[in-house]
Amino acid sequence: MWVWVFTVATILAIIGGYIAGKKRLMSRNNLLKNSGFENGKEGWQWLEWSGGWAPFKISDKIFRSGIRSAYLPVDSTGESRRTVVWGVVQEVTVKKCHIDCLEGYYYVGRWERGANKQYLQVVIIDLSRKVKGGGNAQIRYILSGVDSPPYNLGNAHYVFVDSDRRKDPKIKKWIYFSMDPSFDFATQWGYEPKEGHLLRVLFEARFDDYILGQGRALADVYYDDLYLGPRTPIHCMRGGGMGERIWY
Ligand SMILES: [Ca+2]
Fold first, then answer.
1. Could you say which of 8, 101, 143, 185 is the most buried, measured as most Cβ atoms within 10 Å of its Cβ?
2. Integer Cα distance of 7 and 109 in angstroms
């Protein structure tokens, strides 16, 4: 009898330790703070100083984890600007490890196309690295909405992360995405952002080159459970993403 109690207690302790360890691993490795938006806007910003940006919201109606997510209410109504970006942004300092995993989930609740260039994009800008010709080195990951590079920029390379995500997004479904920034920076820019580099990471929904009078651009876009850091047994080890790598 006591042997069984002891055995069960030991097993429970091992499982408990494993789960606690996993949680520690998750929080310690993620360079992004408040990555599930459970603390509201804490740690996140939008580019208020930019003439092309609009503020984000926190949703407590649609979420993948906990009770909250980031909500990007794309709407051209009343806009005189031709390009408007809704997004959540963080600046992070690279630690002594690879950043070979950028992953998360997006959800599109509504999608009315009002512009040819209306899309979801994740961007990493290395603020510690200038490129020839000016500007900071960037990788722009197209998640959905366009099937060719929206711009031709000297300091940005585009990556289409999966062939399914090059047209209109799937509606009312959480979609997983994952990328390998270490690999993409090495391949595209010839170096990997190392310890101490300051990165700006942007999760966006936007329209560019909107033509007034052409119809409304409307979209409800959500992001949740975002991660940037090293690949671990619980990050970037599942299927999805990493499929088609088309670089521009
Ligand atoms: Ca959440």
1. 143
2. 49
Beta bridge partners of 200: 91, 125
Q: Which stretches does DSSP call E strand in 131-197?
A: 136-144, 156-160, 175-179
pLDDT given at position 22: 47
For ligand 1, the distance from its centroid to the CA atom of residue 58, given in whole angstroms, is: 10
Ligand 1 centroid to Cα of residue 81, in Å, is 31
Question: Are residues 57 and 71 in contact, defined by beta-carbon separation less than 8 angstroms?
Answer: yes
Q: Give pLDDT tens digits for 6-47.
A: 566 655 555 555 544 444 445 579 999 999 999 999 999 999
pTM above 0.85, yes or no: yes
Asked if pLDDT for residue 3 goes beyond 70, the answer is: no
Residue matched to tokens 């806009």: 79
Q: For 3-37, give one letter per residue: b (16+ CB within 10 A) or e.
A: eeeeeeeeeeeeeeeeeeeeeebeeebbbbebbbb
End-to-end CA distance of the chain: 67
Q: In this structure, what are the phi and psi dihedrals at residue 20, rounded to the nearest 5 degrees?
A: -60, -40
What structural domains and CATH numbers belong to the chain?
31-247 (2.60.120.260)
Nearest to 161 by CA among 139, 129, 182, 136: 139
Percentage of the chain with pLDDT > 70?
85
Tens-place pLDDT, residues 61-107: 999 999 999 999 999 999 999 999 999 999 999 999 999 999 999 99
Which residues are within 8 A (CB) of 73 and not within 5 positions of it... i.e. 6 or more apart?
57, 86, 220
List all residues 6 or more positions away from 78 whose beta carbon is below 8 Å from its beta carbon: none
Residue 67 Cα, ligand 1 centroid: separation in angstroms? 6
